[in-house]
Amino acid sequence: MKRPRQFASDNYAGICPEAWTAMAEANQDHARSYGDDSWTQQAADLLRETFQTACEVFFVFNGTAANSLALSSLCQSYHSILCHETAHIETDECGAPEFFSNGTKVLLLTGPQGKINPDTIEPMVKRRTDIHYPKPRVLSITQATELGTVYSAGELKSIGAISKHLGLQVHMDGARFGNAVASLNVSPAEITWQSGVDVLCLGGTKNGMAVGDAVVFFNPELANEFDYRCKQAGQLASKMRFLAAPWVGLLRQNAWLRHARHANAMADMLETALRQIPEIHLMFPRQANAVFVQMPDTLAHRLHDRGWAFYTFIGQGGCRLMCSWDTQESDVNDFVQDLKECLQSLKTP
Ligand SMILES: *Cc1c(COP(=O)(O)O)cnc(C)c1O
């Protein structure tokens, strides 16, 4: 069955009206190319306002590029990057962080619910200190995590402090940063540079843009020659205004947070409904816009047969149900209704 909206991923959703309108505004006339235009300037200024600091901002096409290029600017090839074993940079970027940093090794940390256990950081850094092993240089955290959980402000501060103490720079993969801010109800500053984050890869695509991520350097020294890195990697848009204008649309009246809050609220509604069903087990606390559940395989297959799309391979398996800026209450109700019908039909062959 054809469905207008799905729970597969927030990148299934279209472009939100605010981003669309700004794109149309940017399309009215000519502008200078390669980022030398007023839209790019305005988007960067709005990000500085949002983060309440004089950060350096770059716009690239996607999250893989943002993460990989940001990480490569923090590392030499003989360094290593520590991240959670379910981190996107480890599991979903085809080795791009290692490729763009010319061989920097990624070392995997563990911890429950997709979050790094802070106690694992120091042992990993100190495990080897000899010249034969790549030197730990960066800690990468994902906020919100790949498993739909969120690091609290306190957790981030403590991870930031441990990292600084151990001489690690801190990178944050913020593909769903808006959902984390909305969930925690904190200022963007508090959970980034005020917690020791040196560079944030801020996702636009899943928040409602057509395409684009922003790389936000809170430590401006690290941004040195980053423009060359972007260009060499094919990430310098010649019509940059169309990567920048959607940010203006999303940021100027806080639409980014409104959309993230909405997606979170839809996930909350879905979670509440699914909790009533004994055959369904919630896998992780639902803290952002994703609900991870275990359900019988036969049930998942029936739902797929009914035209519902959702992933079963993310993180630690199970079914991931992701809400978007445009998820409607009726989508949640339809899904839950279908799920109940499928369950019933499985019981009465
Ligand atoms: C989607 C996502 C990205 C970015 O992926 P691209 O497809 O390269 O844009 C990065 N990190 C996380 C956690 C994601 O979910």
How would you describe this structure to a colleague?
The protein is α/β, with parallel strands linked by helices. The protein has two domains: 17-251, Aspartate Aminotransferase, domain 2 (3-Layer(aba) Sandwich), CATH 3.40.640; 257-347, Alpha-Beta Complex (Aspartate Aminotransferase, domain 1). It has 13 helices and ten strands. It has helices at residues 17-26, 38-51, 63-74, 88-91, 96-100, 121-126, 153-165, 177-184, 226-232, 241-252, 255-275, 297-305, 329-347, and strands at 56-60, 79-84, 105-109, 135-142, 169-174, 199-203, 213-217, 281-282, 290-294, 319-322. The strands form two sheets. A seven-stranded mixed β-sheet has the order 1-7-6-5-4-2-3, sandwiched between helices. It has a three-stranded antiparallel β-sheet with strand order 8-9-10, covered by helices on one side. Helix 8 (177-184) links the parallel strand 5 and strand 6. Helix 12 crosses helix 13 (329-347). The structure holds pyridoxal-5'-phosphate. The site of pyridoxal-5'-phosphate has 10 residues, from helix 3.
Instruction: List SSEs in N-to-C order.
Output: HHEHEHHEHEHEHEEHHHEEHEH
How many beta-strand segments?
A: 10
Low-confidence stretches: none
The domain tally reads 2
Count of helical regions:
13
Mean pLDDT over the residues? 97
Task: Give the biggest sheet.
Answer: 7 strands, mixed
> Given the C-alpha coordinates, what overall shape results?
globular
Using the 3D structure, state the CATH architecture of the largest domain.
Answer: 3-Layer(aba) Sandwich
Structural class: alpha/beta
In the CATH hierarchy, what is the superfamily of the largest domain? Type I PLP-dependent aspartate aminotransferase-like (Major domain)
* End-to-end CA span: 22 Å
> If strands are numbered along the chain, what order do they take across the biggest sheet?
1-7-6-5-4-2-3
Beta fraction: 5-15%
The CATH class name of the largest domain reads Alpha Beta
